[in-house]
Structures are given as structure tokens and as C-alpha cells.
Design goal:
Layout lengths: L2 H9 L11 E7 L4 E5 L12 H11 L7 E8 L9 H10 L5 E5 L5 E5 H4 L10
Parallel strand pairs: 3-4
Antiparallel strand pairs: 1-2, 1-3, 4-5
Length: 129
């Protein structure tokens, strides 16, 4: 299956009863493994987790570490593209190298590709602590 097909299938697994805004993400690791994530909402909105962070933290739980990531692919419900929120951008910047790909994929086949450094040109990182 194509990445677009995998992301579409994954959208159905999102838990978004409040916003109805389903998001799927798949992280591609340097070793060729693909790790999925979906958004999971909560009645206490601050307890919600985005698909991007779900996929990234699942990779960490599986034993991957900073530097093991290659690309992240993101799809939202509807026929548009959507950027990661700024909390997700912070986590992406923490875990993924600045030249890793951030790929937005539309259900209609539209696609935009960025680098981590494009999304967060001035990241908050360990040097700021």
C-alpha cells in the first residue's frame, strides 16, 4: 500500500468525538520501520494528544532514540493539508534531526514536503536551559 492509503486507513482509528478532526501520522525510522499514531482527544482538552506526538512517543517507547527518525507523514480528515501544532513542532524538533522530512499528505493526493528546520527555524532546545 502507498503512504497515502496507509494514512487514510489510519484516520479511522483516531479518537476525536469532540472536534471530529481526525489526524493520522506515520513516522519513518532510519531502519525502515514505520510507526503509526493518531490523535486521541479527551473531555479535558489539555489531556488530548496529537497524532504526531503519539507516533513519535510510541517510537521512543519501542526503544528508538533521538537521531533514529527519518521522516514523519501527516494527514488530516477532509481534503486539505494541515501543519503540525506548535507543541508537536517542539517535540519534532527535540527528536528529529533538522534535515528530516515533514511530509503533509492530502487524501486527494496533494503533498507538501518540509524539513524540520523549516517548521522551527529558532527552536527551544537544550542550549536554552
Amino acid at each position: 500500500k502507498t503512504m497515502k492509503e496507509e494514512l487514510i486507513k489510519l484516520l479511522d482509528k483516531a479518537y476525536a468525538p469532540y472536534s471530529k478532526f481526525h489526524v493520522s501520522a506515520i513516522v519513518e525510522m532510519k531502519d525502515g520501520k514505520y510507526i503509526p499514531g493518531v490523535n486521541v482527544e479527551n473531555a479535558s482538552y489539555g489531556g488530548s494528544i496529537c497524532a504526531e506526538r503519539n507516533a513519535l512517543t510510541t517510537a521512543i517507547a519501542m526503544g528508538y532514540t533521538k537521531g533514529d527518525f527519518k521522516n514523519i507523514y501527516i494527514m488530516v480528515s477532509g481534503n486539505k493539508l494541515s501543519m503540525p501544532c506548535f507543541i508537536c513542532r517542539q517535540v519534532i524538533t527535540e527528536l528529529m534531526d533538522k534535515d528530516c522530512g515533514v511530509v503533509l499528505v492530502g487524501k486527494n493526493g496533494e503533498r507538501e514536503e518540509y524539513k524540520v528546520k523549516d517548521l522551527c527555524p529558532y527552536p527551544f532546545n537544550e542550549s536554552d536551559l
